[in-house]
Amino acid sequence: MTTTDKDYYAILGVDEKAGGEEIKKAYRRLAKRYHPDANRNDPKAADRFKEVGEANAVLSDPAKRKKYDRMRKLGAFGFSGARGGSRSSPATSPPSGGFSFEDLGGLGGFSDIFSSIFDRGDKQQTSKPKGPRKGRNVEYNVEIEFMTAATGGKVSLSVPITEECATCRGSGGAAGAEWKPCGECGGSGSVSFGQGGFAVKRPCPACVGRGRKASRPCESCRGAGEVHQSRKIQLAVPAGVETGSKVRLTGQGERGEKGGAPGDLVITFKVKPHKLFRREGLDVHAKVAVNMARAILGSKISVDTISGKRVVLRVPPGTQSGTRFRIRGQGVRGKGRTGDQFVEVVVKMPDSLTVEQEDRIKQFAASAGMKW
Question: If 49 and its partner were Cys, which of 34, 98, 124, 244 is the partner (CB 3.0–4.6 Å)?
């Protein structure tokens, strides 16, 4: 199945009218299910993972989804619009009185539309440059611990990469193989499909748009011209990163074509919540439970900080629940300064009292002029 034949709604298992949140949930569920790291013994999982990512890239982008739906409605993908279309040879012209996608003035050529929708670049074009080309950038999301984000550290990543096969340099043919024009497309690299009154020109699935086929396929990529693999990376996390922060690793993306420079790897962080701390910019917030006696009489309490040190905090007599105290310089370091830590006191009341304890509290309340 070529990319143009894929029903992205079916791949993600969502309805055509699915909202962005539903698409996001479906993608996350399937990406987790087919991630190469979780399916090391299933070589097809990597292809499925890539297919799911491709579907999400189109349907989660309003502009790409609009173009995709428009082409889908016109029957350009073989599962919508007029049914029962037949396949024709490369030389077949549109039916009499019909038109081709190149005639859609508002849309431009079909290959240009398709390239803009799927961001396939010139990889599927028969007229792509023969010289070196820089590899594509790879974007990867990584979830890190709260403390790692706040104070910095290192994390180990296994990033799935799809790149040009190094053995055959993307040609798909084995060393010394003979090349002949593709018999399916006649060497043009594209085929035409008649579809209820118009014709659609698409890259030939037999030669993947190359226009020629090797007598022996490359053993490394099995003729695909690209390989799927996981790259192990030890990533240094700068102190102070937040959810949405990005780090660019130059030259760690996909391998360039024809000796071109590799692309970059762009890491986007997602910070896990902490059971004690939460952040607001460079400031750290925490809650500390104090019993009723300490709150009434005043006390000193020991407070945890993100640096690992415990700071002694003085709670004055009569402190109310919800009172906040500032510990300067105990926040996150970043942007040329260090934030503070704010500690909110939560007065903890006893779950139950004995008769004797109730009497003593009543006596105390009476002496303090309190009513109940």
Answer: 34
| Residues 359 and 236 occupy one common structural domain | no
- Whether residue 177 lies inside any domain: the answer is no
Per-residue model confidence as pLDDT tens digits over 95-112:
333 333 333 333 333 444
- In the three-class reduction of DSSP (H, G, I as helix; E, B as strand; rest coil), residue 338 is classed as strand
> Cα separation of 197 and 201, whole Å?
14
Phi, psi of 86 (to 5 degrees): -110, 155
- Of 165, 238, 170, 264, residue with least CA distance to 208: 170
Is residue 144 domain-shared with residue 158, that is, in the same domain?
A: yes
265-311 tens-digit pLDDT: 999 999 999 999 999 999 999 999 999 889 989 999 999 999 999 99
Of 272, 267, 269, 332, give the one whose Cα is nearest residue 306: 332
> What CATH number did the domain enclosing 138 receive?
2.60.260.20
Q: Which of the 8 DSSP states describes residue 133?
A: B
Nearest to 327 by CA among 339, 318, 315: 339
| DSSP SS3 for 22 | helix
Helix residue ranges per DSSP H, 195-272:
none
Total number of domains constituting the chain? 2
Per the CB < 8 A criterion, the answer to whether 315 and 345 are in contact is yes
Global confidence as pTM: 0.53
